[in-house]
Amino acid sequence: MDAIDQEILERQIYIAARPETVFSFFVDPVKIIRWKGVRAELDPRPGGIYRVDINGSDVARGEYLEVLPYYRIVFTWGWEGENSPLPPGSSTVEISLTPEGDGTRVILRHRGLPPQLKAVHAEGWDHFLPRLSIVAEGGEGDQDVWSM
Asked: What is the dihedral of CA 117, 78, 106, 30, to 10 degrees?
């Protein structure tokens, strides 16, 4: 295992919504843009596209590797653009959904990040996961455009 494989960013959040509800916010393009972008193209099946335009200029792209309804979602991740330091598909995001009381424990592991990009991705996930919590719990996501 090389050093790049050892760079794992992990975040956890509790969401007061059932796993079925939370899961839908990772696989439904209409729902994902409520917390994480302005446009999305998602085909949630192994080999299907994961493409989210975060703010009109930064586009995350990869493909779904694993989709286990209400339990686990795995997709590759990178950024479109000719000189991207993290090209599409060059890292992996794993989402685990575990029932906890009346809600869901979401564990996100972002693997394969170059060390110099770990902090900026941590900042991104720290921004977006609370937004996921708000919309999955039935609130309205704010419509700010977040530039990276």
From this structure: 140
CATH superfamily ID and name for 3-136: START domain (3.30.530.20)
pTM across the whole model: 0.90
Q: Which residues 6+ apart lie within 8 Å of 141 measured at CB?
A: 34, 35, 131, 134, 135
Give the torsion through C-alpha atoms of 42, 71, 104, 51, to 10 deg.
Answer: -20
> For 29-72, how does the pLDDT look when each residue is reduced to its tens digit (9 = 90+)?
999 999 999 999 999 999 999 999 999 999 999 999 999 999 99
Asked whether the beta carbons of 64 and 45 are under 8 A apart, the reply is: yes
pLDDT above 90 (res 121): yes
Bridge partners of residue 92, in order along the sequence? 76, 111
